[in-house]
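Slide 14.
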Amino acid sequence: MLVLQTVTDIRFARNSAAGLAIGVLSGASGMSELQDADFVIPTVADIVQADGRFIWQND
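Slide 15: predicted structure.
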């Protein structure tokens, strides 16, 4: 998993087989630039949901 801020970061995550690419809108890019990420969240704090699970834990 990589938490990222730019299109270049997304490419790096994909090329390195990082697993998940998580875009953060509080960084250098907006939603349109981060649309290829697996998840796009407002801030790094949003990786953990209110119930304590990570955003990629659906069960």
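Speaker note: Residues 2-47 form one domain.
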